[in-house]
DNA sequence: GTATATACTTGTATTATACAAGTGGAAAGA
DNA sequence: TCTTTCCACTTGTATAATACAAGTATATAC
């Protein structure tokens, strides 16, 4: 890989991170905080049968982190914790109707934000950027 | 812009942010914390004549945030604050030799990390990703 | 010469994260 | 069976980067 491309990615990644931090730290987008959004999204698309442990593995986050996020979502009524009938220690997390509505509303706001940012972009650029982002994120999983 | 591309970018951006947060929060890269790196980089490439205020404007960060980052860099001996001869309130920040060395070392480590992640990527993909990232970051500045 | 504006610092709060210790149920070995 | 070890989860504590608000000292304007 060309040195110049590496340099650019390295620097721009740092800039992007700083910008995202600044934007998201104090402004909740909609009614979900940034962390809970991805958790809710995950639960919604998984049809709801996963416990804290499984999710923290997939997210590569500490269990305690996911535990708190789940507690936060539950306190807002966005998910319910259904006790596992077999294993008394475990739960499965399921999204509620309120949760679904909130997720949808949130997603919309976020997408509008992205859309606004990409106003001047061509169709091709947008598609490429999305795919490269996805590919980049996937590289993190490769290492274990 | 196609709805699908927007969706992808929105989701992958959130995932990327979570991952970067997790990676960078507890592991300093080299001997600089993540925030100070960009400040030092900026000071280095600007040949050193900018004050806290000017930098915070460019970075779109609060003055207090940049003030603390600068104090941190100064305490490590990476920058010096030269009092403005005309304006008694103002300083200009200049990188020291130690600072230059630290920046360079840090940059190297970061670039190796990126290089490692992009091992399987083609030349073209890397170049495109870098340029699209840069373009995306630039969109934030457009709005003011 | 007083009032206002500006550059910067410092106090305090917030967020998402990790690590460590604790709780209570499950599984395995004697 | 019962004791030990393991596992899912929760809770306490620390950390880092940010913002807002209040404070300090200097500059500028009237």
UniProtKB/TrEMBL annotation, chains A, B:
<keyword id="KW-0805">Transcription regulation</keyword>
<dbReference type="InterPro" id="IPR036390">
    <property type="entry name" value="WH_DNA-bd_sf"/>
</dbReference>
<dbReference type="InterPro" id="IPR039422">
    <property type="entry name" value="MarR/SlyA-like"/>
</dbReference>
<dbReference type="GO" id="GO:0003677">
    <property type="term" value="F:DNA binding"/>
</dbReference>
<protein>
    <submittedName>
        <fullName>DNA-binding MarR family transcriptional regulator</fullName>
    </submittedName>
</protein>
<keyword id="KW-0238">DNA-binding</keyword>
<dbReference type="InterPro" id="IPR000835">
    <property type="entry name" value="HTH_MarR-typ"/>
</dbReference>
<feature type="domain" description="HTH marR-type">
    <location>
        <begin position="1"/>
        <end position="138"/>
    </location>
</feature>
<dbReference type="Pfam" id="PF12802">
    <property type="entry name" value="MarR_2"/>
</dbReference>
<keyword id="KW-0804">Transcription</keyword>
<dbReference type="InterPro" id="IPR036388">
    <property type="entry name" value="WH-like_DNA-bd_sf"/>
</dbReference>
<dbReference type="InterPro" id="IPR023187">
    <property type="entry name" value="Tscrpt_reg_MarR-type_CS"/>
</dbReference>
